[in-house]
Predict the structure.
Amino acid sequence: MLYLSAHVFRSTSSFLHLPDGETAGVIAGQLVDERLAACVTISEAVTSVYHWQGASETAEERQLLIKTTRQRYPELERRITDLHPYELPEIIAVTIEQGLLGACPRIGSVAREVHFESFFSVI
């Protein structure tokens, strides 16, 4: 199977929670339109249980899975902070170490990065 090497493919998946589907759709659309994200997946409603300002809280939220490059992540984070309705949005970014050849280069090209087609490694 063909994979991109980890040192060449510098992309992240970021997780973000929003209060409802409408807000999730608006923010997802803006991130893709501004080419800060190659793709944003919006989940069905999830239940979050967390501690905030000294109390346990439970909330129904929508989770976004945002795919972008590591280079664009700081700009993505700033934009999310500007758009997000929460006082302190939780943004968790995870580095993508490997991925299927056809999908991975798209993240970089859509997020205005170089194309990685010439950097394949065979595993």
Q: What stands out?
A: The mean pLDDT is 82. Residues 21-33 form the longest helix (13 residues).
